[in-house]
């Protein structure tokens, strides 16, 4: 038996996966593999090229070199194609062809024109010898030729693979930003997916999209050749094609796949919050022949739990590059990191992202980073061989003891008394954001709130008759004693001046710091901004109302009108709401609500944030809701529509419209901070009305029992 003919072959790939591809080429029988950025070259038989087409998980194209020639300009390309390549060995007149030209370091600057000159040379080559020329077919040619021009040399190859090998054939349904199959295969391989994973483990993708990572993992685990699902390869119309050899290799691959199916598999499961993505994933999995091996469910990240004691979590979360949700992505990663540290300790991790700083949000140490490319986007695959727990102990302020004397000692003693009581109460109740002082002493006209390890101080505007110098001195004493009693650094104290607000002034921007802090309330997490707005994004006095909503939300359709930053929505979602809809006119606060949802692991169609005028939206909406929260501003106006809303004047219309959207057995909660508000008694003729104001005033606001009023509404009968 004669030795097989050896060829020079090349496999192209995405930058970053060359080392994986080298191992594949060796396994395919390739000799002397040489890697460079974006590819691997080797010496091997035709069989090694066929095996690479059939088995490579990471290569884009497999090229068989057939010649080369010097090429400094386009004319050189024509002359070289005319005289340096024996095209008749690789193409017959009755077969169509195409030419793909790629330019490297060369003075030639137009790849399409360069390919055209090579095509002209090939056509004239045949015309001189036969009087005829083969036809071009750029869509489905019988033979594809690749030309690469670099440093004055053109290299010509037959494209054995044909269309890019990432087109496995199983995927027609994709998500918003799908991964190429070859890149997905590299991700799962580098993350640690291998055939050593047994039935006591799981491979989990919590944001699976169209399921590409799951499918590629299953193909690897089952020892299934990716090329088996393809209907065509480039070599099938090539005169040098060995059909017997190819049939033998396919039979071998089928036998290996059958053996792989018989071995014990780990659990492979994916989740996504988008039902459209879930449907697409299931279709792709079915086309890949893996419906009995991969489970995909619709589910929110917030509900993610490990199905087994150990395993591999691999995912490609949205990162804002193409999806346009950069701010949400930041807090989504933070949520994922919190879940990993709490639920998946000891699991391996492979997280793919274009932004390493997002991966830092996970809070995991001891990770390894691999540089990969998703098209032109430079990305990182962050891997961990064991997810570690991260401390989430609540911050406790250290309260200074000892005698308090000197200027402002009366304020200091009152504040310490309040702090001693409040800190103990907050620890017992699991509260991290609360009020500790609110104008208790007339001479110290401030409100002080603790937001975990940050202090928010609101200075009420002094009476007009008070000397400004005296007022300023007393405020300085407030800040000085705060730092003394709590050992607070200056950067942890945020100061605002509060005066009577008109319209939407309470929502208007006061600064440009833009710093968000993460705080906790029960099982919910919120983002607060302590510097840029008069209000922080979290109304502390509504804490009992939010908890009330969370307790009643399970299985309910929840509507939040004048939703602000969506804090009530978060409680509803965490409490098990079937769906939530949050409506607010402000684009700023609608975006903030989306960030809060992402921070808590909720998103998709089940948790909708609508930027709209609430009254107008209510007149158009036809949905039904089981639980509705209405917390309008006292007064607001819109410049665009020149509309004015006044809570006292307009609350009947507002509540009537909202009650029209309430399910027959549903509950509506209405709240207002307008101290002079009087509920229209005529509403009780149409609805069951029950005041719950006293029940919804938290302990830290007990000194101010009129901070808000609150009612529950139900349908009559």
Key descriptive features of the protein:
seven-stranded mixed β-sheet, Transcription Regulator spoIIAA, VC0802-like, alpha/beta, single chain, 717 residues, 17 helices, Rossmann fold
What's the number of structural domains?
4
Q: Strand count, sense and closure of the main sheet?
A: 7 strands, mixed
- The CATH architecture of the largest domain can be given as 3-Layer(aba) Sandwich
In which order are the strands of the major sheet placed? 2-3-1-4-7-6-5
Please work out how many helical segments DSSP would assign: 17
Using DSSP, what is the number of strands? 29
Portion of residues in beta strands equals 25-35%
Rounded to an integer in angstroms, the radius of gyration calculated over CA atoms is 34 Å
Rounded average pLDDT: 92
Q: How far is it from the N-terminal to the C-terminal residue, by CA?
A: 94 Å
Full CATH superfamily name of the largest domain: Vaccinia Virus protein VP39
CATH topology of the largest domain: Rossmann fold
The first-level CATH class name of the largest domain: Alpha Beta
Determine the structural class based on helices, strands and strand pairing. Answer: alpha/beta
* Quaternary structure state of the chains depicted: single chain
Give helix % range: 25-40%
- Sequence stretches where pLDDT stays below 50 over 5 or more residues: 500-508
Broad shape: elongated
């Amino acid at each position: 038996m004669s030795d097989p003919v050896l060829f020079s072959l090349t496999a192209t790939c995405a930058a970053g996966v060359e080392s994986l591809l080298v191992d594949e080429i060796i396994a395919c029988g390739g000799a002397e593999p040489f890697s460079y950025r974006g590819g691997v070259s080797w010496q091997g038989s035709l069989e090694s090229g066929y095996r690479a087409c059939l088995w490579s998980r990471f290569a884009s194209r497999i090229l068989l070199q057939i010649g080369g020639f010097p090429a400094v300009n386009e004319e050189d390309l024509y002359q070289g194609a005319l005289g340096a390549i024996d095209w008749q060995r690789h193409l017959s007149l009755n077969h169509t062809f195409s030419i793909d030209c790629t330019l490297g370091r060369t003075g030639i600057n137009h790849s399409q024109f360069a390919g055209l000159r090579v095509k002209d040379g090939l056509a004239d080559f045949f015309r001189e010898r036969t009087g005829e020329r083969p036809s071009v077919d750029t869509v489905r040619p019988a033979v594809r030729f690749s030309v690469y021009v670099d440093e004055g040399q053109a290299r010509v190859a037959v494209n054995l693979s044909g269309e890019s090998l990432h087109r496995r054939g199983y995927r027609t349904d994709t998500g918003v930003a799908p991964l190429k199959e070859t890149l997905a295969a590299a991700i799962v391989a580098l993350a640690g997916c291998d055939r050593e994973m047994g039935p006591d483990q799981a491979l989990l993708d919590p944001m699976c999209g169209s399921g590409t990572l799951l499918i590629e993992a299953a193909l690897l685990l089952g020892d299934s050749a990716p090329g088996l699902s393809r209907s065509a390869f480039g070599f099938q119309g090539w005169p040098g094609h060995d059909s017997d050899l190819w049939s033998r290799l396919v039979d071998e691959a089928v036998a290996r796949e059958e053996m792989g199916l018989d071995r014990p598999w780990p659990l492979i499961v994916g989740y996504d919050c988008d039902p459209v993505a879930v449907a697409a994933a299931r279709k792709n999995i079915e086309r890949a022949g893996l419906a009995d091996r991969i489970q995909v469910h619709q589910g929110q990240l917030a509900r993610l739990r490990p199905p087994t004691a150990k395993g591999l979590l691999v995912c490609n979360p949205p990162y804002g590059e193409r999806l346009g949700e950069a701010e949400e992505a930041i807090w989504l990663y933070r949520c994922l990191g919190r879940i990993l540290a709490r639920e998946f300790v000891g699991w391996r991790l492979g997280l793919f992202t274009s932004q390493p700083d997002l991966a830092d949000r996970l809070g995991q140490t001891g990770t390894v980073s691999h540089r990969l490319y998703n098209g032109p986007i430079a990305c990182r695959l962050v891997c961990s061989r064991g997810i570690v727990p991260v401390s989430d102990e609540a911050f406790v302020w250290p309260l200074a003891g000892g005698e308090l004397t000197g200027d402002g000692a009366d304020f200091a003693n009152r504040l310490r008394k309040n702090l001693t009581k409040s800190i103990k109460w907050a620890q017992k109740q699991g509260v991290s954001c609360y009020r500790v002082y609110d104008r208790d002493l007339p001479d110290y006209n401030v409100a002080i709130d603790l937001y975990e390890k940050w202090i928010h101080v609101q200075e009420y505007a002094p009476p007009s008759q008070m000397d400004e110098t005296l007022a300023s001195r007393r405020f300085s004493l407030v800040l000085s004693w705060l730092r003394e009693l709590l050992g607070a650094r200056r950067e942890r104290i945020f100061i605002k001046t509060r005066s009577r607000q008109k319209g939407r002034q309470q929502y208007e921007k006061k600064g440009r710091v833009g710093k968000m802090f993460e705080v906790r309330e029960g099982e919910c997490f919120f983002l607060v901004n302590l510097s840029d707005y008069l209000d922080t994004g979290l109304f502390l006095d509504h804490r009992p109302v939010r908890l009330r909503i969370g307790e009643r939300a399970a299985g309910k359709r929840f509507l939040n009108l004048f939703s602000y930053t969506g804090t009530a929505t978060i409680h509803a979602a965490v409490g098990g709401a079937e769906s939530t809809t949050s409506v607010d006119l402000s684009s700023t606060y609608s975006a903030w609500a989306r960030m809060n949802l992402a921070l808590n692991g909720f998103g998709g169609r089940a948790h909708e944030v609508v930027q709209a005028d609430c009254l107008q939206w209510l007149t158009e909406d036809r949905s039904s809701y089981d639980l509705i929260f209405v917390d309008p501003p006292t007064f607001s106006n819109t410049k665009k529509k020149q509309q004015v809303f006044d809570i006292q004047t307009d609350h009947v219309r507002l509540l009537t419209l909202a009650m029209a959207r309430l399910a027959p057995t549903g509950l509506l909660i209405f709240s207002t901070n307008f101290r002079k508000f009087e509920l229209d008694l005529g509403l009780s003729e149409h609805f069951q009305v029950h005041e719950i104001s006293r029940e919804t005033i938290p302990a830290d606001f007990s000194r101010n029992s009129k901070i808000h009023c609150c009612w529950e509404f139900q349908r009559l009968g």
